[in-house]
Amino acid sequence: MQLIRSALAYIALMAAILALFPGMAGLGAGAVSLAVILGWQDMRRVPRAVFLVAGLALVFALGRDPALISSAAGNMSRLAGLILAVMLLSSVLSRTSDLQQISASLFGGKPVARYLSLSFGTSLVSIPLNFGSVAVVGSLVGERMRSSGDSPATRNATRAVLRGFGVSPTFSPLSISVVLTLTLLPGLGSLQLLLFTVPFSVVLVLCGLIWREPEIAQETGSSESKVGLAPWLRFGALILAICAGVFLLSHRYQLSYAYAVTLSCMGAVFGARLLAWSRKTNPPLVNMSNVSNELAIVGGSAFIGSVISGAVLGQISGDPNVPTWLWPVIAACVPWVYFVAGLAGVNPIVVGTLAGGVLGVIWPENALIGLGFGMVTGWGITAFGTPFAANALIMERLTGYRAMDASFRWNLRLSLGGLTAASLLAAGMTVMLL
């Protein structure tokens, strides 16, 4: 059964890569659906709920307008292929010695330098690895805790990893948050969005310096101080190459942003495979039998959002006649909706799909940056400030720190400050551009 599920995941990935050919959208959506159904017994509650709602959306579309199904299946196939490509890239890169050296080097220096190194380093590693960055860096924090015990240093390291990963949905060109936002808000440009979100992410991480525990500066081991620049340069060059591929494909060749990310990530995967063959090694194919949860959430949410946005668009004729003052108010509320929903255990993909699918259709096009900024910043703060986020649960398993403590209590003041700033900025952008 696991072999069949893994094969279905690879079929869905190939269908996403070959999306320009006829019939690939249906093939990809079908493969995703079968992979989810076969893995139903091993899935968590939220992915099951999302996929069941997607089934209801399918029934609704059949009764209302079957033409909605075609676009929804295409959206489902593209975003499912995206998450599979990113996961495959993460698995390939996690095997490299460069990544292990980089992760170990993040622990060097005095307390302030160590916090900044861990937070910004995790953010950088998160660009291609997504949740893999938490597993790699977090496992090193867990080893420190097991060897040295609980201490302010290990608690601050946990804060840094959570916050560093948490801002990656806000600024990473490869993150599902940025891709989903740009997919649902096609009038918003990627460079326009990142121009505002990258500085916000940097400031948010720096503000985390205020909310740390005091610790005694201590000397680090010599093994940590001997890591050279070569691993960083190689890893940074890979990230730049992937991002450059994304921008080239999406801007010069006018491919959809999700499709561009998928192709760029797979280019890096194929390149790594060719390099391994040239060195006469043949690593086994990554087993993707355990991706049912991710496919259910991403694929199901994409299908739901497409059906909802298509239905809403069909109901709107001309100007929706919304008062001008209401747009900035809605923009200010968007980050808080993400956070409150995250506290209730709702995945940000679900919130983003519904918010973008409904609001993206009626939002004034010249002020889309206000909505897009609110969506990705709310997503990021939810990722490090709520206890049900996947990275918080991973860190709980690796370090033993309860997710409620590490993600919510330790970060509450930073989360509230970030949400307030994000709301004001989103509303301000909307007011200025209306």
UniProtKB/TrEMBL annotation:
TM helices/strands, residue ranges: 7-40, 46-63, 75-95, 115-141, 161-185, 191-211, 232-250, 256-275, 295-316, 336-361, 368-394, 414-433
Keywords on record: Membrane, Transmembrane, Transmembrane helix
Taxonomy, superkingdom: Bacteria
Keyword Phosphoprotein listed: no
Full protein name: Uncharacterized protein
Species of the source: Marinobacter antarcticus
